[in-house]
Amino acid sequence: xxxxxxxxxxxxxxxxxxxxxxxxxxxxxxxxxxxxxxxxxxxxxxxxxxxxxxxxxxxxxxxxxxxxxxxxxxxxxxxxxxxxxxxxxxxxxxxxxxxxxxxxxxxxxxxxxxxxxxxxxxxxxxxxxxxxxxxxxxxxxxxxxxxxxxxxxxxxxxxxxxxxxxxxxxxxxxxxxxxxxxxxxxxxxxxxxxxxxxxxxxxxxxxxxxxxxxxxxxxxxxxxxxxxxxxxxxxxxxxxxxxxxxxxxxxxxxxxxxxxxxxxxxxxxxxxxxxxxxxxxxxxxxxxxxxxxxxxxxxxxxxxxxxxxxxxxxxxxxxxxxxxxxxxxxxxxxxxxxxxxxxxxxxxxxxxxxxxxxxxxxxxxxxxxxxxxxxxxxxxxxxxxxxxxx
Length: 390
Ligand SMILES: [Zn+2]
Ligand SMILES: [Zn+2]
Hints:
single chain; alpha/beta; four-stranded antiparallel β-sheet; 16 strands; elongated; binds zinc ion
């Protein structure tokens, strides 16, 4: 099947869009300005976007003139509750809000990809579903779009998304086969004992010592229960108990997170967690109440889809600049799409040490080298084109 060759993305407009979105960040499920800009721009391209999908999300279909498959391209739109410390002219104008993860880049990249796709839809084999997603940072945005039908009428045969990647130098693209980002679970455990004078522990039931044992024992989920070749992280991050140095409190609470790549191990995590916590609570005569939440599943790239993304990336940055080992125990709710359809999440190098653009995601001085925008748009456009043409 002949491939459609698209006009290159409009780089100047791409950067202008990114700077405008960067200056006007909106938090999860509040992306009303952003989604109206997206809607307006898609309408100007002759598309008929559907708004309010998953609350503030936008969906649009580029229907090709020839029959074929359907590919979903996804960009997230939300910002973070962080006060920006950069001095750039396009810095955040909203106090306490900032595009510190680069979702402004993703939204502008997908808009830049929409333009040539819509312009040459007549020669496109198949359909491209453009998905502008809210609320990635708090989780739930992807799932709320799926619940509102993002994967129906038509159901995509594949899904691709990208993230600007500050651990990768500008000019590099990361295409990882298999697990790339971890499943993210969160927990709250409250242990109740019986308060007493600190000098007379035998008259009460100490929830603090009980919880200390839990914290230590929970580490065995990764060190003793999982295959040493599997990546598992258990982090207890918040503790709360007591009111004075000489009183043993009646209760103690801890919060934290468990992260894992392997889907089977992920399935087993709540059971393992509960067995350890309840076993220790019982051993120490306390009672434990567990709240265990699934934030997102593991982001696992399909090998065939990763090969398509890699071929596209090689055309844009050269084979030597495509790396295959971008992995982190951070989470990403694009996983919700990848649990339903095969696809690939692509990392676009955005770091430029020579220009001081080295701060990581979620840092108040996070900023990207904007040359990554064109690379991202080219890679995404060519990935979609290759998927539909093969
Ligand atoms: Zn983020
Ligand atoms: Zn992000």
